[in-house]
Amino acid sequence: MTSKSRLRQFFFPSITPKFLLRVVGIALSAYLVFSYVLIPIHIQGSSMEPTYHNGSINFCWTLSALFSKPRRHDVVTVHLAGHSVMLLKRIIALEGERIEFRDGKLFVDGNKIDEPYVRYPCDWNLPPRQVEQGSVYVVGDNRSMAIEDHLFGQTSIKRIVGVPLW
Questions:
Q1: Euclidean distance between CA atoms 166 and 131, whole angstroms
Q2: Residue 54 burial (CB count, 10 A)
Q3: What does the mean pLDDT of the chain come to?
Q4: FRET pair for 138, CA 20 to 30 Å: which of 20, 38, 69, 85?
Q5: How many helices and strands in the chain, by DSSP H and E?
Q6: How far apart are CA 153 and CA 51, in angstroms?
Q7: How far apart are the first and last CA of the chain?
Q8: Is 153 helix (H, G, I), strand (E, B) or coil?
Q9: Is 76:165 a contact under the CB 8 Å cutoff?
Q10: Are 133 and 96 a contacting pair, CB within 8 Å?
Q11: DSSP E strands: which ranges in the chain?
């Protein structure tokens, strides 16, 4: 077989049952992987700046939610309505902990928590609140935004879909 005919066969393969079966297998595998394991997410909004930028693309690695419990400082994907509306947020408190913001500083169970990922100063004040069992407290990294402009708060651990891939 000449290189020209091999090249033609590569770009224009013969439609055989074996070829069709391979195409269906690849399409089914891609559908399953990108619907249930590596869910593509388009980041909209600046609540996670500078860690994740508005308009960027990432993938939600769902297997992490199956094999590990959420920990403080983890960035997670939280679903609101199926996989069509998901938020990218950071866990700042775990179930049973008491959380508050005083003059922009995070306190959990009365102890100030160091947050090296927060780069912009803020003046948030939030009265103490207890995180319920089976829930975590999530918030974005961009604290320079007004507290009213953020979607944050307590969410059920069951709503955590996974973690961003990078």
A1: 28
A2: 13
A3: 91
A4: 38
A5: 3, 11
A6: 19
A7: 44
A8: strand
A9: no
A10: yes
A11: 38-42, 57-61, 75-81, 85-93, 98-102, 105-108, 111-112, 126-130, 135-139, 153-156, 160-164
Contact 58, 38 (CB under 8 A): no
- pTM reported for the whole predicted model: 0.83
pLDDT digits (tens, 9 = 90+) for 101-113: 999 999 999 999 9
Strand order in the sheet with 38-42: 38-42, 57-61, 160-164, 75-81, 85-93, 135-139, 153-156
| Residue 5 pLDDT exceeds 90 | no
Which DSSP state fits 145? S
Residue with tokens 């990218």: 88
